[in-house]
Design goal:
Number of strands: 11
Helix content: under 10%
Order of helices and strands: EEEEEEEEEEE
Shape: elongated
Number of helices: 0
Radius of gyration: 14 Å
Largest sheet: 7 strands, mixed
Structural class: mainly beta
Distance between the termini: 41 Å
Length: 120
């Protein structure tokens, strides 16, 4: 089994910062990519940022220049540093990973989600 545990959300004022973390554990053979998605009330889940093995990153236009995704391969962990937060960043943030397990199964795994609320 594979588990993703994401954390770091909370309440922050506009202009503030938060750092999300997501740790993958279990029967992992390889991690091909990790990333963050978010879902605001009444909206569809959307991509925020991804990082693939090798270090290439991709960001949604709405967060470019404000958010930074990084990874620690040794810890199977991905981080999302969020700066200059805006009320429209309010959402539940979900960690996602493309993982191959020790028995050779490859698939997408999700964390349980962490709430980010940007409000004064």
């Amino acid at each position: 089994q594979v588990q993703l545990v994401d954390s770091g959300g909370g309440l922050v004022q506009p202009g503030g910062s938060l750092r999300l973390s997501c740790a993958a554990s279990g029967s992992i053979r390889s991690i091909y990519a990790m990333g963050w998605y978010r879902q605001a009330p009444g909206k569809e889940r959307e991509l925020v940022a991804t990082i693939i093995r090798g270090g290439s990153t991709r960001y949604a236009d709405s967060v470019k220049g404000r958010f930074t995704i990084s990874g620690d391969n040794a810890k199977n962990t991905v981080y999302l540093q969020m700066n200059s937060l805006k009320p429209e960043d309010t959402a539940v943030y979900y960690c996602n990973a493309d993982i191959s397990t020790s028995v050779g199964r490859r698939g997408a795994y999700w964390g349980q989600g962490t709430q980010v609320t940007v409000s004064s």
